[in-house]
Amino acid sequence: MRHVPGTPFDALQDGDKLKEECGVFGVIGVADAANFVALGLHALQHRGQEAGGIVTYDPEQGFNSARRFGYVRDNFTRADVMATLPGSLGIGHVRYSTAGSKGATAIRDVQPFFGEFAMGGAAIAHNGNLTNAAALRRELIERGSIFQSSSDSECIIHLMARSIQTSIAERIKDALRRVEGAFSIVAMTRTKLIGVRDAHGVRPLVLGRLGDSGWCLSSETCALDIVGAEFVREIDPGEMVVIEGNKVISTRPFTPAQSRFCIFEQVYFSRPDSILGGRSVYETRRQIGVELAKEAPVDADLVCPVPDSGTPAAIGYSQQSGIPYAMGIIRNQYMGRTFIEPTEQIRNMGVRLKLNVNRALIQGKRVILVDDSVVRGTTSRKIKDMILDAGAAEVHFRIASPPTAWPCFYGVDTPERSKLLAATMTEDEMRDWIGVDSLKFISLDGLYRAAGESAGRDPKAPRFCDACFSGEYPVAPSDKLAEGFEMKVAE
Amino acid sequence: MRHVPGTPFDALQDGDKLKEECGVFGVIGVADAANFVALGLHALQHRGQEAGGIVTYDPEQGFNSARRFGYVRDNFTRADVMATLPGSLGIGHVRYSTAGSKGATAIRDVQPFFGEFAMGGAAIAHNGNLTNAAALRRELIERGSIFQSSSDSECIIHLMARSIQTSIAERIKDALRRVEGAFSIVAMTRTKLIGVRDAHGVRPLVLGRLGDSGWCLSSETCALDIVGAEFVREIDPGEMVVIEGNKVISTRPFTPAQSRFCIFEQVYFSRPDSILGGRSVYETRRQIGVELAKEAPVDADLVCPVPDSGTPAAIGYSQQSGIPYAMGIIRNQYMGRTFIEPTEQIRNMGVRLKLNVNRALIQGKRVILVDDSVVRGTTSRKIKDMILDAGAAEVHFRIASPPTAWPCFYGVDTPERSKLLAATMTEDEMRDWIGVDSLKFISLDGLYRAAGESAGRDPKAPRFCDACFSGEYPVAPSDKLAEGFEMKVAE
Amino acid sequence: MRHVPGTPFDALQDGDKLKEECGVFGVIGVADAANFVALGLHALQHRGQEAGGIVTYDPEQGFNSARRFGYVRDNFTRADVMATLPGSLGIGHVRYSTAGSKGATAIRDVQPFFGEFAMGGAAIAHNGNLTNAAALRRELIERGSIFQSSSDSECIIHLMARSIQTSIAERIKDALRRVEGAFSIVAMTRTKLIGVRDAHGVRPLVLGRLGDSGWCLSSETCALDIVGAEFVREIDPGEMVVIEGNKVISTRPFTPAQSRFCIFEQVYFSRPDSILGGRSVYETRRQIGVELAKEAPVDADLVCPVPDSGTPAAIGYSQQSGIPYAMGIIRNQYMGRTFIEPTEQIRNMGVRLKLNVNRALIQGKRVILVDDSVVRGTTSRKIKDMILDAGAAEVHFRIASPPTAWPCFYGVDTPERSKLLAATMTEDEMRDWIGVDSLKFISLDGLYRAAGESAGRDPKAPRFCDACFSGEYPVAPSDKLAEGFEMKVAE
Amino acid sequence: MRHVPGTPFDALQDGDKLKEECGVFGVIGVADAANFVALGLHALQHRGQEAGGIVTYDPEQGFNSARRFGYVRDNFTRADVMATLPGSLGIGHVRYSTAGSKGATAIRDVQPFFGEFAMGGAAIAHNGNLTNAAALRRELIERGSIFQSSSDSECIIHLMARSIQTSIAERIKDALRRVEGAFSIVAMTRTKLIGVRDAHGVRPLVLGRLGDSGWCLSSETCALDIVGAEFVREIDPGEMVVIEGNKVISTRPFTPAQSRFCIFEQVYFSRPDSILGGRSVYETRRQIGVELAKEAPVDADLVCPVPDSGTPAAIGYSQQSGIPYAMGIIRNQYMGRTFIEPTEQIRNMGVRLKLNVNRALIQGKRVILVDDSVVRGTTSRKIKDMILDAGAAEVHFRIASPPTAWPCFYGVDTPERSKLLAATMTEDEMRDWIGVDSLKFISLDGLYRAAGESAGRDPKAPRFCDACFSGEYPVAPSDKLAEGFEMKVAE
């Protein structure tokens, strides 16, 4: 990833986690909409840390936009920036990085995207990824569209510009019927706030009520909490809502399809204080720990989370197993940029900047470490080193997700398949490569049970998109197939 | 506090916590000393977030210094800054704010302080507070010294400048024999690294070994871990160590006194992964929770920490009581600056920026909240509001320290006595003012037991400085008495 | 004008001068093209001080672009910026402000503009103004183009995108045949540098040779000097040159028209060390002073320029009249931002920041002040005040251009007609309003003579565009006429 | 010189001009004193471009100070900075670089200096240089003073701190009686504005009246003009003025000495619109040109200044000789930072960034170039190259000062003697080394005549300090002599 000057940089997380690519938030019917959007995006910052943008509309000032690299708290807290965003209607976006971009994100890739049409302007913010964007882009350029970004999402606004429909809402439908892949979209015209989810509902989108006159759309419920909005309901897969004044009009513009919500939102992406499917994400994760303790018990002295994402599952594991829960690894709350290493190099400095072992606690103990996932495995090895250096007697890894063996094409930044540890090794090989006494992943069925499917996964009609674990892609990734990606052959 | 542009600002913590005022770190005998100091200060950032400074010495470049507002990670990670700090010997300081400063800290108040003497230069970094600084300052100005800062600690370097001793180490002794109060000092000359603790040993200071040739001095052991140093021992109360080459020479320059280490370091200031008195701080805090569960049991559904400082005690409380531990409040990891509030104000926005209730988990539950301390009580009220808004059935506060009823004069930023909730209310009155179903503090004896004194507190010779709880000050605060502060009358 | 933070701001010039809107520069066939473009733009900074941009192409890195507010010297001297602009082919643009923008320029309005077409990318930089841009823009949006800027020049790149031609050069021709108005354009593809001037040749464009392999295109010759290029020739009105390798291919794509070069380039816009029509601009301006002394003599002690633009004409006036030339007004070379005025306001502070009267020289003298033009007249009044405050006996204004009575629609920022002093007053009324002893403008014939037309202006076929003086517009300003602008009625 | 990020950098001037080291300004008895000081320093910016500082006093806010690298217009125009400087009394300083500093200036070297004394605080700003500062500094350190800067001027405030006088004005006298060298000082207490000049009056200092209640002290009269103050008189050599309320009390604290004002202020340092000795500096410089034309005539076509400092003398030379004055070299008004040179290096790029030859004017002409001085001669060679490259037939240099053969020790940054071209070459050798057809300097007598001494220089009692030309130092440079500097042996 490009090093963006002035942007904090989470060295460890970058190396070895899947990263959600976006969060979206919109609000209508309030004074100072931009302030609400800024707070909402701040609560969604975990979904995209690289850049953020806000667009608002005010009858006198027209559409205004501010797009910045860096954290919401560093840009959209500045009075000079916020003063440029008047109006009672606004949408915003935080992003991690662009599918399609060769490495670097330029500021022109930062959403929301804006287009001026004959009937007025519109802005859209997209969470997800289009699997036929490359083909669409070629076609649009051929016909005279000029792309300003390297982002796939820009296709949507060009498709809208070329639609022959006379309202923007209808043009959005036209455009989205041409795209394939995953999308949860928040859009706005001069008077309307619009939300849409693709037919499978891969990415989340929720509706909230703000006082008597306002409405919000948000990727997660935690952003409703920060602005004091009441959670109304999730937008359904395949649903489009158009909000104007106090009316929320719902339509179903797409061919119905089976619901396939991203299961990794449950495991890692969503914040633990968000609500998915009527249950706290924290509780689902704790339940994963309970299932894991049942599936993969081991005799030990302490259950320690790899902070912070392993914490709820570690609590669940401890409660189910009766082995005491302990903070064996402490996370430095002032993480950020990379320090200059002295000439006499410090072993595993990258991890030390973020984590420190609670040495006096760990010494001589048999330790169960609970982490959310293993991607490349490089961080797992370094953590194992730290724990052993501190004098642990045994180290047992328990992972709160099945082996990640397939890339995601629906809005998550995944390494190439060949870089995924689970794509090339068995569980035992991984254990040896990481160098721990034992390593166990939760089963896919166990994960489904923890997520509320008491019967486990129905292989004929799985309730979630679990392609990263199963290799079963609900939408064929057509651009990738054209590039030579080989899908799993049915067994 | 002055709003320092560009400095992250922890709105909640500022309002309602005691704040350690400083952390110090020094290293000798390594290439690129400044890089080690930067890492050490980063690990000590929790002891002072407002500003930091580093001084190094290189035979060719002489003494060099860089002092900045803001986090270590934002300043001392920059190649251009670090390039100005060559040498194999260096010390550094992070600070919260200056005793003596009227509100604002100027950059000239940021330590280490440097003085050029006839026999060469020296720099010092001071953690603690001098209780006779005002009188010393008046005297020094009268005699022609020019103060550059509003910091009390600058007295030390002027006393050194006026000493008739011919070595810097002896001048430091001369100077420190004139001062009263608490100090853990790290100092350097062109060839020596020097550490000193006052006779009571109020503030911490530890010695570490770095490879074959290097030595470190640090406020806490967690900073030894980050640079890969081995913990050797604590510097004793009243001890001075002078390190040159591979020799560590120890002397006892001051009149011996009873050891009175700050007990609040155990409760809150020190990092949980540091080691104090041979035990993990985390473990001591967990033990406080155990004692608290014994002293103040209550029937409930969940034990939740107020993150992050209440976490270890909440774990201990849960383990002792058998009531499940849960993350009922989630801390936003992207905290920072203050957002602009919309015209339609958001209830308790300051707290919302930092914390969010795990609504789906809390609803209908009887919740025990474990926090480290109550200072003004304002944040406790807001947290109670949030928990009740989320639908909790009952809220019980359990506090991991006794009531804070007296100000600290030894290097901790405390509100005036009249602002301390416990100085004006009984426990029951506090419960009603905060508005919770029950409120209990650990007893002073219980705290001593958790800190390893199985017999509790010996009222004749307490092992710790607990003046903030007991009003018994080991060193009379002479400047404050002159200003009219009334000490506790012996009962 | 919007206050752009960090951008120097010439308070005086802004208030009361016509402002050229752009300068363009391009280079091909050299290593580090961006460094040449930066130098060229620096030499053209007087043509546009608000913002600048550079695009380069490198076979490995593709097209790269950097666009910034502020001076070239503040942005395009930074190693980090220049490192992002590799390649041997590049173009650049400096701008003042956008026709069409409501006040503020956004960074997206800064040129060069870039478009990705089916046959590859292209970038263009435009000096001039299109008089049918509003109509074109409406049409393009209707057909599905998405505009990213408020700049008229963006029409060109959308017209190119929709052309059915298969080479970029041909698409440029297609596009430019649809536009009306004034343009001198520098464009680039992956392999070609392209220059075009409209059929009237209103704005300048010159060709230079750089060593054995390189070529430049530039608004003025002064930018050839800074990069060490040899001046080859002016691009002709209506000519297009396509430079690739060592070949310069010239075509005439437009209907031939009479040459009408902007006469204000001679008076004020171009730098005095540039060459126009084979003669130094300085020399033309000196000659204006000579003509002015013949047309409007007056008895006085000193001839003083209003610095710096009145200097050459003042020298000419002095030489012709025999009255000594003197620097009666001194310009502060550190001009820039606006200072905060004290509560006790300082008379004419804006002018004082830029100019100071040479008090000891002026006292008791009859002074002739030579200025280049009078637009609103507000600055002329302030300068008169300063001169009289310093004790001058008489003040005579001599203006090196005819009365500016009509707005320019070809790329110059002019106030509305009603704000032009000469649109509403006679010469005598202006003299009284400004408050000087005499005021004389050069005649249009005198100006033509100074510019090399010994017979003066041919009213049937004037050699220059002098619409700002004469109201005779060579191209009908169709957008403006649609908005209600009233052209001069033929007498 | 250190490259100060963010500070404009005048590449040419740096290389080959003597540089004044400071300008001072103070004001009392006005609202918003800081705004006046900022304007005054802006007008004095030519005396010191590297850094500036302002101190003000307000009864409620006490003393406040802001010190910054860079131009006044970039720092002291910011509302956030100026808001920190309340009060009706203030002083300021602009500086070039520190005598005594090894290369780099730290912010702690930026004046005014401030000291807190038993009777209250005081701030001082010093223009000039102390010739016994090194010895004083050693003595003060020996006695326990701690220096915060590398600036010689800091000695004054330490001497004040150690004085036994009971008023600050008396302490200033005490301190200044101990120092040797040149000083024009502006100082302030809580209620008084104080100005002092050394007994020889080497550096300028003037008094101005501001409205009914205010007074100013300034290095030059041009700074009185910008704030609208009336010039009252020069402070006399050896005079001290103490201004409080509406009273200006004058005393003569030093042993009387012959007046020896720096003649280089006339030649180059002072602004042309300032008044020295009752006459415009511009007029003195024009008169130098007149004298030079008499002393060193030559047959030629044009007289051109080297801009901007050669301009007045060139005008005088033209008027005396009858040879037309012309702007043969144009200065780029957007000078500043250094550009990145392309791989294919551009001949004399440094000069090109600042100057361009008016090629069409110069071609085939015999040109007289008038410059203010020759220091190293390197720039003269480059300018000669540019003029010849442009096709000049002959080049004749005429220099408006005698050969600069000796360093200045009184506040001017001069190269070591060995780097001064005139210290090692005769006039003819210099002509050949520079490579021009003729080179002539004005004589010392001619310079005195132009400066108003009709009889020329009185070798027994010269009216000016002309040590840089004559080697006759009015004050023995004792620190330099101790370092081995050899003064001129009397002939």
UniProtKB/TrEMBL annotation, chains A, B, C, D:
Active site, renumbered: 22 (nucleophile)
Residues noted as binding [4Fe-4S] cluster in the record, renumbered to the chain: 262, 408, 465, 468
A molecular function GO annotation: 4 iron, 4 sulfur cluster binding
Catalytic activity: 5-phospho-beta-D-ribosylamine + L-glutamate + diphosphate = 5-phospho-alpha-D-ribose 1-diphosphate + L-glutamine + H2O
Keywords on record: 4Fe-4S, Glutamine amidotransferase, Glycosyltransferase, Iron, Iron-sulfur, Magnesium, Metal-binding, Purine biosynthesis, Transferase
Functional pathway: Purine metabolism; IMP biosynthesis via de novo pathway; N(1)-(5-phospho-D-ribosyl)glycinamide from 5-phospho-alpha-D-ribose 1-diphosphate: step 1/2
Pfam families: GATase_7
Biological-process GO terms, alphabetical: 'de novo' IMP biosynthetic process; purine nucleobase biosynthetic process
Record's cofactor remark: Binds 1 [4Fe-4S] cluster per subunit.
Cofactor(s) it depends on: [4Fe-4S] cluster; Mg(2+)
EC number of this enzyme: 2.4.2.14
Binding-site residues for Mg(2+), renumbered to this chain: 309, 371-372
Keyword Chloroplast carried by entry: no
Ranges of residues in domain Glutamine amidotransferase type-2: 22-246
NCBIfam families registered for this protein in UniProt: purF
Family listed: In the C-terminal section; belongs to the purine/pyrimidine phosphoribosyltransferase family.
Role played: Catalyzes the formation of phosphoribosylamine from phosphoribosylpyrophosphate (PRPP) and glutamine.
PANTHER family for the chain: AMIDOPHOSPHORIBOSYLTRANSFERASE
Protein name in the entry: Amidophosphoribosyltransferase
Species this protein is from: Gemmobacter lanyuensis
Gene: purF
